Amino acid sequence: MDRPRHIAIEGPIGVGKTALAQILAERTEGRLVLEQPQENPFLAGFYAERHKYAFQAQLFFLLSRYQQQQALLQQDLFNQSTISDYLFAKDRIFAALTLEPAELALYQQVYELLDPRVARPDLVVYLQARTEVLLSRIKKRGRDYERGMDPAYLDALAKAYRDFFFHYEETPLLVVNTSDIDFEVNAEDLDALLTVIARHRKGTRHYVPMGTKSG
Q1: What is the reported pTM?
Q2: Hey, is 176 helix, strand or coil?
Q3: Annotated catalytic residue: which of 2, 76, 85, 189?
Q4: Which CATH superfamily is domain 6-207 in?
């Protein structure tokens, strides 16, 4: 029998990371580890004035994620599955996209001190979707601080994610295009996705489901 797995779900804003993490944790009776963006006191300011609040928001995220990952290391990762809605290394995607060169250099120094002390997952599931799909999902969930999300920023973020995971080799990777599926609503879409996740163990795989679009 396989030991429990540590799975991280990744992807740009609005792609469905948290929803999939919650479903996986429920199905595996695993430990759920979620980002808490609403706890970042600089996030609303960042969305209103990106350049003014980018460094504060990014550093807060980096340190809070690190504290969360350190707490994980104190627990037994071999007796219970762990499902997270983020990968610690993805913090660099946002930093590179939003920080000025001097800020990024300082950020990198802090990141390099913390990263070696973070556990690596057994599998990363990277969810993709077209920018218009992401915008639709963001609007649907209706978070106050995401209102007025800049489509250009979201498009740049999605591209940065693609570039990051194109070169990613640290763990097994499953790339899933979710543009034409709705695993939160459609049971067939969900079951097909969960089957692919359960079977993927080595290397990188790209999964492009056609979807049923019915609910």
Answers
A1: 0.89
A2: strand
A3: 85
A4: P-loop containing nucleotide triphosphate hydrolases (3.40.50.300)
